[in-house]
Amino acid sequence: MSQHDVEVPGNADDTSPAPQVRAEALDSAGVHDQHAAAPGRTPLDAAVVAAPEVVSNSFGEYVRAWAKRVRSGESGVLPVLGGLVAIIVIFQVQEPVFLSAGNLINLLVQGAVFMLLGMGEVFALLLGEIDLSIGYVAGVGAVIVAAVVAYPHSWPWWAGIAAGLAATTAIGALQGALITRLHLPSFVVTLAGLLGWEGVMIFIVDSSGSGSGGTIRISNNILNDVVNGNMSPIAGWILMALVVGLFASFTVFRDSRRRAGGLVTPPVGAMLLKIIIVAAAGIVLVVLANTNRGVLVPLRGVPWVVPLLLGVLGLWSFLLGRTRYGRYVYAIGGNPEAARRAGVNLTRIRTVAFALSGLTAGLAGIVYESRLGSISINIDGGTLVLYAVAAAVIGGTSLFGGRGKPLHAVLGGLVIAVIYNGLGLLGVGAATEYIATALVLLAAVTVDAVARRGRTLGTS
Amino acid sequence: MSSGQPLSETVVLAEGNVEPLLRLRGVGKSFGPVQALTDVDLTVPLGQVTALAGDNGAGKSVLIKTVAGIHPPDAGQIYWQGNPVHIRSPRDAAALGIETVYQDLALCDNLDIVQNMFLGRERLRRGLLDEDSMEKAAKDTLLSLSVTTVRSIRQPVASLSGGQRQAVAVAKAALWTSKLVIMDEPTAALGVAATGMVLDLVRHLAAQGVAVLVISHNLNDVFAVADRLAILHLGHMVAEGPASDFDRQIVVDFMTTGRSSRRSGDGLVDGVGRSGG
Ligand SMILES: Nc1ncnc2c1ncn2[C@@H]1O[C@H](COP(=O)(O)OP(=O)(O)O)[C@@H](O)[C@H]1O
Ligand SMILES: [Mg+2]
């Protein structure tokens, strides 16, 4: 009568101390329970930190709920947007060139690498893990693309990109498998990656025969144009109209359908405000990009890296927000044991997340080498990954798992690019640059930790 | 996800006995050196509330986790409607029609109420999450259970009070048509009003023909809802039988010492004193 099936599938994901801790938290929460459950008392009074769109019916209520949420630390993208405006004002006062069309577009292009790496990092952070390797994973991807496209291999550009992205995705999957199957901490595995992939990158450059002095030049026009090429002004307007139009019609369609069905819907005013902000940002961007920013020869148009960024942002937001896979990423980040009991395959979800982090890093590597027109073994993957984590966290992604969006990495990457670019214009040098970025990161992590404490207290 | 068979389905054995929905025979489970369960028998019939009592650390939570597919037993056999089954994962349990409300509730703080209620069983439309239909179904279930104190079912579970979280966890189990609902200490963290609501819900489920297995060491709750009682002591099942065979003193004796000098009825002797030796 003995049972053969004694092994627990996925049992290794069992974090046994955690449930005890949570049960205790619940017990202490029970002390206050009678108040909260008392009739006639709305939970909004009891320090609710819900998103404003879910607890309000009118625009005024929406604004009040929003303010309440910001005060309790659960603030979404508001602090980063506010911080961004503040930093921009400071730089503009100090250095009037800062807000010129040429500099702003330059800044955007500088920030693209941070944004992409940050979007890769979001996958790890959402799970409550970290990926320290993506800087050099991007480097490996970049040298593979550059090496196979350059003489003597001379592959077509698309084959080079495919090879580079396949390699970085495989690297991410390998690290993910080590983390999930052998139960190694992601911190340690990806720290090893930080060292190891730099070695692999140098090895590829040395043995490819494509480079000289540790540098491979990018002579392919299409690869160079990812960053250095511009869309025609008219194409920029069409792209903008398309993106804003799709966003607006999707939002309006979804909201009216949900409102008709009696489901939770943000007020019309909030919806319109969101659409107006997106449209305004799009128009400003295209106007700036279509201004002639050339010095000797005319130079205008939206850089090709912008649609690339928008595409990655849209794709990853869609994956995380609208598919089962994304839902499980958030669930694992929130409570891995609950996800396991719900039948979620933690090993697979986590491994795929690290693979997607690697894939996104590969794209960042291509943008990096495209901007410079070459790739060198001196790429500083260590600093890049710190900027990636900083971008995600500054934008509002939690280091503690379960909270964050790809959009956060884009906004946070923009903040870093503004600091980097602004301090560069002021000519303050690398020392101040590093210190300023470090302070912004510290501020962001503090906001995250305080918000987390607020949430924990909010449940009791 | 469970089949649409009538809830009162039973299997009649050759001798004419009615086979219970769930039967455990000689179930054992150890975690390394810790023997959490030893040779446990348990019967859970349809349409009745079975209360599982026992002191802290008696093994109540481990026992229900063997049925829920969290910790498959390493000895013994589980019978479902008379057939031996191997419940290896929470999905296996759900496929049989077993829903579990865990002691720690197993909710994701960062997800909202709807997302928690459908976790692991999301509805899809053209491959994408069908938020509208999930939200409607969750809303209907909460209303049918008279859970009306939450401001919005789209607020994250982190923003709920202890009682509201318990209500969400119970509603999550009630959302699925199931044959067996297991609740681990559902009232431990609740005030008087919320406790009454959960106990009403337990009776409501049993009246619908569902088998309910409730863990509690609150004797008021046990005697308020239970049709049958089972008492664990240090991993041994020391007593099992109809609730009418027990009174408070007997239950306390079994819970604290594993034996009782008094007996009130014949149905009770099953396993008496086994843990003593
Ligand atoms: N995952 C686990 N790993 C090791 N020991 C465990 C685990 N779960 C429970 N135990 C042990 O099994 C025994 C019974 O625990 P439990 O079933 O939680 O008691 P209770 O009856 O209070 O619910 C305790 O000694 C506990 O420490
Ligand atoms: Mg327990």
Write a structural description.
The complex is a heterodimer of chains A (460) and B (277). Chain A has 460 residues and is an all-alpha fold. Chain A has a two-stranded antiparallel ribbon with strand order 1-2. Chain A has helices spanning 17-30, 33-37, 52-55, 59-71, 78-94, 101-126, 134-149, 157-181, 186-208, 221-228, 233-260, 268-290, 305-322, 324-334, 336-341, 346-372, 381-395, 406-426, 430-458; strands at residues 215-217, 374-376. Chain A is built from 19 helices and two strands. Chain A folds into two domains: 3-71, no CATH class; 83-229 and 303-457, ABC transporter involved in vitamin B12 uptake, BtuC. By secondary structure, chain B is α/β, with parallel strands linked by helices. Chain B has eight helices and 14 strands. Chain B has a six-stranded mixed β-sheet, with helices on both faces. Chain B has a four-stranded antiparallel β-sheet with strand order 4-3-6-7, covered by helices on one side. In chain B, strands 1-2 form a two-stranded antiparallel ribbon. Chain B is globular. The N and C termini of chain B lie far apart (44 Å). The model of chain B is unreliable at 1-16 and 264-277 (pLDDT under 50). Magnesium ion (MG) is lined by residues 60-61, 103, 184 of chain B.
